[in-house]
Amino acid sequence: MSDEMTLARRIAALRGSERVLSGGRMGVPLGELLSELAETAPGLYDMDAMPDMYGDGVVARLEERVAELLGMEAAAFFPTGTMAQQVALRCWAGRTGNPTVALHPLSHLERFERSAYVQVSGLRGVHTTDEPRMPTAAEIRELAEPFGTLTLELPLRDAGFLLPTWEELVEVVEAAREREAVVHFDGARLWECTEHFGVGLQEIAALADSVYVSFYKSLGGISGAALAGPSTLIEEAKTWRHRYGGTVFQQWPAALSALAGLERELPRLPEYVAHAKVVAKALQEGFAEAGVPWSRVHPEVPHTHRFQVWLPYDADALTAAGTRLAEETRTTLFGGRWMPAPGAVPGLSFTEVTVAGSALAWTAADVREAVGALLDRLDRPEREGGGG
Questions:
Q1: How far apart are CA 77 and CA 81, in angstroms?
Q2: Terminus-to-terminus CA distance in the chain, angstroms?
Q3: CA nearest neighbour of 69 among 238, 180, 204
Q4: What global pTM score does this model have?
Q5: What's residue 343's pLDDT?
Q6: Mean pLDDT of the chain
Q7: Do residues 149 and 120 touch, judged by C-beta distance below 8 A?
Q8: Percent helix, strand and coil across the chain, each rounded to 5?
Q9: Which of 45, 256, 344, 387 is deepest in the core (most CB within 10 A)?
Q10: pLDDT of residue 119
Q11: pLDDT tens across 182-199, in order?
């Protein structure tokens, strides 16, 4: 079966599921998305107003809302987070006079942006640590060369959606200040960090000189991002946004869906984070009850409503077993794809779990039962033609 057919089958199984623990937003058809937006938009913005043109109207209202939520002087909407980050780092390099960016090798800037901060913005990076965790204050103080900007991804997705403690984060920021560097937060998922830190969004954002946030990674928006910070920085950022091709004629669908996410999903994130702890514990219990020789939920107690699950089985086999579970029982446990462990460790795979609205009805017993049902399908040959 081709990769395209496998993906189509997996999405169809997910869409046909009556219970979904993780991955519920994948494969939502256009008509449903449009209906959703039409239903929620009237309570968010004046539907008799004209569509935005080059960043005014509803886009400007979204920028104001983000600045209010983060306690920043101003914010600018960007079509992508990659562009927002490049512009932020470029602006800070010009202001500090130092083009060196201190960052983690697992950060989004290094792994998913094709070295844009180097290739497009002419900057260079120095790694804060090679450990799969957030850097410490001591590591920042001991970096062997000066740097103009320290960027911190909160949470660090590729390390397991990890966060430092609040005290550790404050110390890391203070260490950067001691080195006369500015601090930029890659806060694509900053919205979901308040429970772990025990403080509000404004207090978190106040530690940084600038903050980037996403509208689809935590909030379920269509697309888009915002860069927030001092008004002088944001005005300069808007100039570079234009130069980078990011001042789009109309962006009202993305802006409306972002406002909907701030209204609908943001208040629910603490509930998701709390339930993620229940789900993570139940998964560990389920693997133990099923006699899995080795398994790991990472982190053991999730820092946000997202975490990793590691199992000693082939990635394609796990993905196929999950698809069959959904087809045969209308229950999706892990909606995302399983991936081989980094470094090509044979027979070791991981997936990412996001505990959101569809997971709240799941009890610990439900999770343990679904784990057993998934693992049963790893050893059972599939009938000819697939699907059950």
A1: 10
A2: 16
A3: 204
A4: 0.95
A5: 82
A6: 95
A7: no
A8: 45, 15, 40
A9: 256
A10: 95
A11: 999 999 999 999 999 999
